[in-house]
Task: structure prediction
Amino acid sequence: MTLRRFLKTAVVLCTGLLAGSFGAIADTGPAECVRTLGNEALGVIRADMAPAQMENFFHQLLRQDFDLPGKARFVLGPYWRGASEPGKRQFRRRFEDYIVRIYSQRFAQYRGETLKMTGSRSAPQGAIVTSEIVRPEGGPPIKVEWRLGMRDGLYKVSDVIIDGVSMGASKRSEFASLIQRSSGQVQGLLAMMRDRATAPASLPPAGLPPSPGSTLHCPEPALSFASTACSE
Result:
């Protein structure tokens, strides 16, 4: 890493992460929260930092500005009720690691994009903020809708909808399909999430889990999950 790149990364980390200047702030409106959050993320992406540093940033962003407990519950769907408390805790950890690895790699492809707020409106349990990611080459903007709810007096992002596709709904469908292919066992999903989160950063995020010969974590004890879906 060059000195210039190191200093640029250090400045972003100090002003963005350590100062805690993310958007989930009680005394600002939902649109300003999203604007702050999005610009912080784009600023870090432009800093061209190492993959591990970018992942650390996204871990903190998710914990501070997103409703991770609610999202983990939603994406696991009816299987959540069949999980033991240790199983739920491990799924939340795996889900966070999985999301950070997948999306930090995808967002790393952005460079000159800017975030433009296009609207904000109230919702039954919070607010909806609409925005666009404007591409520097002049291509069609990427429409992004942010669903926010209140948690402990702070705005938290509960879902992100990109060009009409809900992150939460798409992951719930993907995870349910994988569990069904694993004879209704959540262990197959946990193994996939672990493998994706620990795969080398150079591997494409949408690729299949590493082959059996790849270097992975040692197997962990099986968790207590119901073998079939329960009604929510």
Notes: The domain at 3-198 is CATH 3.10.450.710 (Nuclear Transport Factor 2; Chain: A,). Residues 123 and 147 are 9 Å apart (CA to CA). Confidence is low (pLDDT under 50) at residues 1-27, 202-232.
